[in-house]
Write a structure and sequence with these properties.
The protein is mostly helical. It contains 16 helices and no strands. The protein has two domains: about 200 residues, Growth Hormone, Chain: A (Up-down Bundle), CATH 1.20.1250; about 220 residues, Growth Hormone, Chain: A, CATH 1.20.1250. The two termini are about 40 Å apart.
């Protein structure tokens, strides 16, 4: 089957755009309505969003389902349908809370469970489909494209939905949420229609007889799969751990106002986007150079992230004289480069090992990413609170946490390099084995 061109990659990226469109309404708009319009504790939407992340632990099971069925498209569209219903259900749950808090909580909990299931099922199978249909030299750029298109889903939906939500009413919220969910599902259907073709997944006749536990044990026994899962978990914890503490740190050390720290977060996210685009452009323009490899950008991005975090530690010591804002942009740039390269590596490594385990392999890594991303912010905030309990200086407490994150990135860089070495060695052995002449006929002849 002919590999996907750039238009085909952009087409599949529309699924990520649709996914981002639904998610941004639930994590931002629904969150705000609960806290402001309904005057509920901020902990409630926080727990619901955490529930959506916790469900990601089931990604390997959904990947196994795709392996057994031998098809990815039904899982992508089924996941998007579940996500769309969950997105609308989250809005409906908020409306119900006005009259019955108990019924509203029940519907909201069910809705956020569906959101987690939808994101996990569709996202896992979409990455497997991209890994199967995109040639190796284009995978880093493809990873950048799908991330950027998801962010575009955030931006476009936030602006457009925000326009139609004013003047706000709960009935408007239902209409806008329903329209976004329906449109997102329709776009996803058009995006994947006819792309998969036949034979993308290698279905084995006896696959249905292999239970999930046995299948995931087989994948976990693969050295590169296990090591890469550990790398994804540690690096994503480090990536997301500063989310809840960077703005308070900027307020304490540099006296920035809430508005200024919000702009600071925008500067960091701008750096993330720039880092992702940089990986995509360099890997495409210099496709045969060492700087185009996912190993170069994954290891380099982790090291640069550790360096930027060391800069945050230095800023805590130096104070106002330190170039704080450029350092925050550098942190975003390094984070974006490593994240895009890690997804590119994920798309390449998923094809190594038993080909009938691609779905469960991607599910394992997706679960590690989702759980780490959901837990990272809480771990960072909790670590800062613990450090403040033992250290009298609030500034020093933040510095200790940033230093610990930097150490995690250094460990992640070592793990990423080991994964790349293992993968290269395994490919070399496989190629050598494939080139060996078949002597079985001569042996039987004797």
């Amino acid at each position: 089957m002919k590999p996907l061109g750039w238009l085909g990659i952009l087409r599949l990226g529309l699924v990520q755009t649709a996914l981002g469109a639904i998610v941004v309404l639930t994590t931002s708009t629904i969150n705000r309505v609960m806290v402001v319009e309904l005057a509920l504790p901020a902990l409630l939407p926080g727990l619901l969003v955490g529930l959506h992340y916790a469900v990601q632990v089931l990604r390997p099971r959904w990947g196994h389902g795709a392996d057994v069925g031998g098809r990815l498209t039904p899982w992508i569209l089924g996941g998007m349908a579940t996500l769309a219903l969950g997105g609308f259900g989250a809005a409906f749950g908020v409306v119900l809370m006005q009259s019955s808090m108990l019924a509203g909580l029940f519907v909201s909990t069910l809705a956020f469970l569906m959101i987690g299931i939808g994101v996990g099922a569709s996202g896992t199978s979409l990455l497997v489909l991209l890994s199967k249909r995109v040639e190796d030299k284009r995978r880093p750029a493809a990873a950048t494209i799908i991330w950027v298109m998801m962010i575009m889903g955030f931006i476009v939906t936030a602006g457009t939905a925000g326009h139609f939500l004013d003047p706000f009413s709960f009935s408007r919220l239902l209409v806008v949420s329903g329209a976004v969910s329906a449109l997102a599902f329709l776009v996803s259907c058009l995006a994947v229609w006819g792309v998969e073709g036949a034979g993308v997944l290698q279905k084995v006749e006896d696959e249905a007889k292999i239970p999930f536990r046995e299948a995931i044990a087989e994948v976990w026994a693969e050295p590169h799969s296990r090591l890469f899962a550990i790398f994804i978990f540690l690096s994503m914890v480090a990536y997301s751990a500063q989310d809840l503490i960077l703005e308070p740190f900027a307020g304490v050390v540099f006296g920035l106002t809430p508005g200024e720290t919000t702009k600071l977060a925008g500067l960091q996210h701008g750096g993330v986007l720039a880092g992702m685009v940089m990986v995509g452009l360099v890997s495409t323009i210099f496709s045969r150079h060492k700087a185009a490899t996912t190993r170069f950008w994954t290891v380099g991005g982790c090291l640069a992230s550790a360096l930027a975090l060391a800069g945050l530690v230095a800023s805590a010591i130096i104070g106002m004289g330190f170039p704080f804002r450029p350092n925050v942009f550098l942190l975003g740039l390094a984070n974006g480069a490593f994240a895009a390269a890690a997804i590119g590596a994920m798309m390449r490594l998923v094809n190594e090992g038993n080909p009938s385990r691609a779905g469960i392999r991607m599910g394992l890594w997706g679960a590690a990413q989702g759980i780490a991303f959901g837990a990272g912010g809480l771990i960072g905030a909790l670590a800062a609170d613990i450090a403040r309990f033992f250290i009298t200086s609030q500034v020093a407490a933040y510095a200790v946490v940033f230093a610990a994150e930097g150490v995690l990135f250094l460990v992640s860089a070592v793990l990423a390099d080991r994964v790349a070495r293992q993968s290269r060695l395994a490919r070399g052995l496989a190629e050598a084995h494939a080139k060996e002449p078949d002597m079985s006929g001569l042996a039987l002849g004797r």
